[in-house]
Every structure is written in structure tokens, then in C-alpha cells.
């Protein structure tokens, strides 16, 4: 059974989806990452941190928390800084929410 807190965390991660998609699309359209980040707000940089943590989140979940990558650590910190609900969630709940995106 999925806990309501997990659904809320997934919603938090998904809420930043359009910003992540546009930021990611900007870099694949030929713009340099420096130019892309310079023209967008700091929120898109935080969202990129979460998006780039997906592989680390998958390793973390698959290893039952034994493998902790640097990108996952950065994403956990970013989510907890920006969202009060994320501060109450476990690392595993946040990693699963990142993967749900």
C-alpha cells in the first residue's frame, strides 16, 4: 500500500516537471548549458539536480539504501530545502518519488 506521504512527495517532484522538461529541452536544442542556466531562474537548476539524480535514486532503492550517490545526496538536500513535506520524508521515500517522475 502506498502511503499518503509518498504520494505527496511524488506530487512535489512531479510539480517541477515542466521546468525540468524545458530546461532539459533547452540544452538538447543546441544551447550550451551555461547559456541555458544563465537565462533561466535558480529553480530550474534545482530541478536539474533532481532529474540528474534518477540513476543514483535507482541504485539507492535497488540496494535498499546501501548505495548513496553524490547526485542523490544533492537532490535530497535540494528537495528538503525547497519543500517542508520533504523534510519529514525518509531518504527512501524521496528516492522513490524521484523515480516516479
Automatic annotation (TrEMBL):
Q: Where is this region: Disordered?
A: 25-48
Record's compositionally biased regions (Low complexity): 25-44
Signal peptide boundaries: 1-21
Record has Signal as a keyword: yes
Which keywords does the record carry?
Signal
Q: Does the record carry Heme as a key word?
A: no
In its UniProt entry, what is this protein called? DUF2388 domain-containing protein
Amino acid at each position: 500500500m502506498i502511503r499518503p506521504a509518498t504520494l505527496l512527495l511524488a506530487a512535489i517532484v512531479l510539480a517541477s516537471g515542466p521546468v525540468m522538461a524545458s530546461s532539459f529541452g533547452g540544452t538538447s536544442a543546441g544551447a550550451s548549458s551555461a547559456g541555458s542556466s544563465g537565462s533561466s531562474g535558480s529553480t530550474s537548476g534545482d530541478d536539474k539536480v533532481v532529474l540528474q539524480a534518477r540513476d543514483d535514486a535507482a541504485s539507492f532503492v535497488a540496494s535498499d539504501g546501501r548505495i548513496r550517490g553524490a547526485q542523490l545526496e544533492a537532490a535530497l538536500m535540494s528537495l528538503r530545502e525547497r519543500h517542508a513535506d520533504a523534510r519529514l520524508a525518509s531518504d527512501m521515500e524521496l528516492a522513490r518519488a524521484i523515480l516516479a517522475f
